[in-house]
Amino acid sequence: MKVLAAITGLIVAAEGAALGPQEPTALQSVLSLGKSDPWKPPNILLVITDDQDLELDSISYTPLIEKHLRQKGTFFRNHFVTTALCCPSRVSLWTGRQAHNTNVTDVNPPYGGYPKFVDRGFNENFLPVWLQESGYDTYYTGKLFNSHTIHNYASPHVNGFNGSDFLMDPYTYSYLNSTYQRNHEPPVSYEGQHTIDVITDKALRFLDDALEGERPFFVAVAPVAPHSNVDPRDLEKGKIVMTAPIPLERHKNLFPDVKVPRTPNFNPDEPSGASWIRYLPQQNQSEINYNDHFYRSRLRALQGVDELVDSLVSRLEESDQLDNTYIIYTSDNGFHIGQHRLPPGKTCGFEEDIRVPLFIRGPGVPEGYTQESVTTHIDLAPTIFDLAGIPPRADFDGTAIPVQPDFLGARHEHVTVEFWGQAVAEGIYGGIGPDGSTMIPNNTYKSIRLLGEDYNLYYSVWCNNEHELYDLSTDPYQLQNLYPTNARAHKEDGPLMLGRSLKQAIARLDALLLVLKSCQGTTCIEPWKVLHPGDTVRSLRDALDEEYDSFYGVQPPVSFGWCDAGYIVEAEGPQVPLTSRYGVSWDVWV
């Protein structure tokens, strides 16, 4: 695939202009030379669920996805989102850019939602538009973004799709009262029908349209399950009430004895976390019982998604297009239920919220394989480009993931995790905000998730300047915050990490976070090169060499001036790190 991308890049550079969407791409023309059958780029089917967990084991309850995708494709064990909230995460997925570069950081205006997506210019500059320009037919059904409503759907219409049928707010999360808006037509209510039945029918019709075309296709299907149910009548009253999802009638009694996994971080005896999480009371038995009900409801709602995937794969098999189609299955963010005493929800930097399922099946993809490389949602648009033979964009903050065994691209050990604004507590016991509401302010933080050969870390700085540091090798449930809270713990004779003191390890982690929290393009992919442009430092272990102690000792720390509801650069402290000088000890230069 890299060779194909290189060929295309040379041709596009020579021609100086992209071909129109109706013409064969230059890549197709080159690869057709001397062949009786012209090379056809692969089709791509993308399925995006809403709020699906990985850490709570939801994928063990979807046998058809297991059959079609996990057994016939590759499971990416270490796949992360970079913002644990649907709209920012989806915009990052569609653009290949971190949320601090899209500046779509919330689900509603002024900091997020569909209006912010349009205002930022992405309606003319995101994945389906690029795919159309490269010769693909594109289709979409289901949830696209929050605040995409029955009132603003035409202001403007979403670009980039040959055919579309979007779920519309305020009915997006109403399982039995959904409203969809097809192409440029007025919205249509499907009250009384289950939203999964509706989207399955729409997805199969779009897939038929795509299969009848002569060009390669990209079809995206975004069911709302297993997201909480939201009654639009509550929204009209200015309330946000997120209750357990509603499964299809035929699934409502499944898994009667299943409970939330009782991991050590489920409703722990001692508080954990930082900021507002550290003050949550332990849940009582009524809350625990409700959490179990909520969990079962999510698993039941996912059964409709399981059947949806089965229907899509069967249709591809019937058309003889399955072998030339990549199927990508993932979710916009993860989910927690009871971990760290939290009610149902997302928005945190814990594993439950930032790890999500990722399965890829298609030509050349190993079957039944588990890939351990670190991958993120920022990497998905570059990956689709790579699979389609399209040169990567310079503004991608991610890089193509290793879908095939002979992958030659760069990999990284880090994930940039960021969040701004409020946390939302879901369920009937969600009134944990300071005024008894479901909204918790000051949930702004910047963090990094780091996985190397012999380290497994999470480091976070909150907007109130509290810190978290977890070593997941010894503390996989993130219960013991290692960040020093007193002067003694900072001393060199304190606890060690990778053979160095916590003080020295934290200095490296903080400098890496300083780069990543405002990175762009290649600096997001290779952040160590920013700190060490002339050295061979490419990992945390490299950076921990004693020769760099003086250099890291003078780096400006990551800090916030105040907590804000959106990405306000002035609130976020230092933005630019110091840079080492080609292997020369820093103290020579200061």
From TrEMBL:
EC numbers on record: 3.1.6.1
One annotated GO molecular function: N-acetylglucosamine-6-sulfatase activity
Positions of post-translational 3-oxoalanine (Cys) modification: C86
Gene3D superfamilies xrefs: Alkaline Phosphatase, subunit A
Stored CDD domains: G6S (cd16147)
Any one GO biological process: phenol-containing compound metabolic process
PTM text: The conversion to 3-oxoalanine (also known as C-formylglycine, FGly), of a serine or cysteine residue in prokaryotes and of a cysteine residue in eukaryotes, is critical for catalytic activity.
Span of the signal peptide: 1-16
Domain of life assignment: Eukaryota
This protein's UniProt keywords: Glycoprotein, Hydrolase, Signal
Domain Sulfatase N-terminal: 42-390
The reaction(s) this protein catalyses: an aryl sulfate + H2O = a phenol + sulfate + H(+)
PANTHER family cross-referenced by the UniProt entry: N-ACETYLGLUCOSAMINE-6-SULFATASE FAMILY MEMBER (PTHR43108), SD21168P (PTHR43108:SF8)
Family, per entry: Belongs to the sulfatase family.
Protein name as catalogued: Arylsulfatase
Source species: Penicillium canariense
